Amino acid sequence: MNIVACIKETPSTTAEKSFGPDMRLERRKEDAIPNPFDEYTIEEALRQQEKHAGSTVTILCMGPATATDTLRKALAMGGDRAVLVSDSALAGSDAIGTARVLAAALQKIGFDLALFGSAAADAYGGVVPSATAEFLGLPLLSYASKLDLSGDSTARIQRAAEIGYNEAEAPLPALVSVVKSINEPRYPSMKGIMASKKKPLDTFSLADLGLDPSSVGGAAARERAISSEKVSTQRKGEMYQGNEGAADRVVAFLIEQKVL
Amino acid sequence: MQFTQEHEMFRQLVRRFVQDEINPHADEWEEAGIFPAHDLFKRMGDLGLLGLTYPEAYGGQGLDFSYTVVFCEELGRADCSGVPMGITVHTDMCTPALAHFGSDDLKQQFLAPSIRGDYVGCIGVTEPDAGSDVAAIRTRAVSDGDDWIINGRKLYITNGTQADWVCLLARTSDEGGYRGMSLIIVPTKTPGFSVSRKLRKLGNHSSDTAELMLDDVRVPKANTIGPEGMGFILQMQQFQRERLVGAITSYAGMEKTVRDTIAYTQQRSTFGQPLIDNQVIHFRLCELLTEIEALKSLCYRAADQYIAGDDVTRLASMAKLKAGRLAREVADTCLQYYGGMGYMEETRISRAFRDSRLLSIGGGADEVMLGIIAKYEGILPGKKKARPATTQPAPAIEPAIEPAIEPATEPATAPVAASPRTDDAHEARAGAPA
Ligand SMILES: Cc1cc2nc3c(=O)[nH]c(=O)nc-3n(C[C@H](O)[C@H](O)[C@H](O)COP(=O)(O)OP(=O)(O)OC[C@H]3O[C@@H](n4cnc5c(N)ncnc54)[C@H](O)[C@@H]3O)c2cc1C
């Protein structure tokens, strides 16, 4: 079985963020890491590989040429090879552009199961998996909190909802997006780190994928960021003094917050 | 010291391990006076963290010492010093001689499971009447057929209450002085072996420290590391790595302490301005950062020398000396700027202050380091033979003798065939910085 884990390069969550004049996040090579949600994507790919002998795991990323470092970090967790889709014409792609590229890359690689995170920590659009499925004309099992492959033919997931979970299945090849509760990502091991350098890492250009540069990138993007604002982390506290029925008010507050 | 992308990935791994697997438990383990070494080491073993420079044949990674540098730097950033000490005793203080000079069988029995994290090791040199003066040890191993029968006591032994084996320095002949000692691996489950006390300490609370008792402990002579009678020299060799590792582990922690203090003094105000705005404070903290950088550079030079297989005794002793003194200075100065808050148990600085005291004593006291340096400079009274100070290839066995011992004659270059850096042969192959 061919498993592909699609990952994005994002700035480290602790890195200082700044935005360019086009309101796009300025990305610094030093801060780049695999999207934290995608650690779960990679982990799930590796676990499925362990369960299905003879499977291969490819890690796929669309990103700047420097994203090879991020792919090496991903390969340190495991996997057999990585593919980077990188082309100067890709700068400024929106989610649909990205999906178009991933779909073409997935087709070129060939796969039975393509795994995605449910969103990227930086942009949080959450559209790429479904748009990619649409381009490929294949089913997407979204927000999986559990994934089982029966034989080589069907994928079955659990999807956690507010009060329980659904089960859904789809024939392979299929796309699956995973949520954090699906697994506990492993640390890259020392062996994995040293081996990552030796694993094959291919770079595809748009021409390799047979894509027209005008169909992707900033020019084709129909979604445009118009402003970016930092979340204010200032916490506002409320003080209840002792003799004013403080305990009752704390209880009322906790009930209001659905803690009690 | 040149770090590659692999070093960087490795650094992230260790940093994350410290954040996720050590720091959340630091308070609890400090309180308990021990950390669960078997548990923690198993997880480290699974990640390949316990045998960085040791041969792959025994489960090690076959890397060069530059990875140990990264490892120690990141361990040093932990929220306590006790756990990093317990770990590095296992990885770099009780195992080097075994890895370099142990027989294949001995390494299969003790090194491989220690690298896997199944065994916890400790190093037994110090005794009630022999610390700085290592040659004064009295623990004695008497020959009985193919076995040693060992009697004696070992004091202040890190990991001692939970170790599976001790790398024990014992007298194996009556020659006296530095002669006639051997390093012997003693499994702690051997009848006659016991932990007589778990010691209470000023600092490094999360690390357990023990007094060990050996009462007619019988172990095979095959457990001797290298040739019989070479124990003292092998231990002096092993000390170089211990001291280097001790120094490296300290400076990252010192830097963290200063940076924490900067953050604290930025938000704490007196007389209408943040504490940090007082020149006396920001100058002092910058002075300390400068000293820390200088120590780091010294450690890097020493590490480069070690990787090259050169004699590192002089620089390792200097690094250890400087680290011990600077650790105290940093902790004391920073605690001062925290004021009353720094005296409170709840701050990391109070723990750092307690922990900082050890480095000038353990692994050879400051004065012992000074004696070694004086000897290398040729100014130790009664020992005028200066030895070349810098990058001479190390002899097959480094005959660095603690100055306090004053042997009648220098030991002859050891009759051991193997190079003291068998793992460094691996290092040369696997790890020349790309
Ligand atoms: C927390 C902790 C953990 C330890 N872990 C281990 C371990 O795992 N294994 C192990 O074998 N040992 C261990 N030790 C022991 C440590 O190595 C010794 O404490 C150290 O070598 C000093 O020996 P001593 O305590 O006997 O001091 P002494 O030898 O009695 O020396 C006392 C002091 O005298 C001064 N002094 C000594 N000699 C001279 C001299 N020639 N000139 C001038 N001044 C001198 C020094 O200031 C020294 O600190 C540990 C110690 C501690 C505190």
Notes on the structure:
- The complex is a heterodimer of chains A (260) and B (434).
- Chain A is an alpha/beta fold.
- Chain A has 8 helices and 11 strands.
- In chain A, a hairpin with a 2-residue loop joins strand 8 and strand 9 (164-171).
- The N and C termini of chain A lie far apart (48 Å).
- The model of chain A has no long low-confidence stretch (mean pLDDT 88).
- With 434 residues, chain B is an alpha+beta fold.
- Helices cover 47% and strands 14% of the residues of chain B.
- Chain B has helices at 5-22, 26-32, 37-46, 65-75, 82-93, 96-101, 104-116, 231-267, 279-308, 313-338, 340-343, 348-355, 366-377, 422-431, and strands at residues 121-124, 140-144, 147-158, 165-171, 181-187, 193-198, 209-220, 224-225, 269-270, 273-274.
- In chain B, strand 9 (269-270) and strand 10 (273-274) form a beta hairpin.
- The radius of gyration of chain B is 21 Å and the shape is globular.
- Chain B starts with a helix and ends with a helix.
- The interface between A and B is medium-sized, with 13 and 15 residues.
- The complex binds flavin-adenine dinucleotide (FAD).
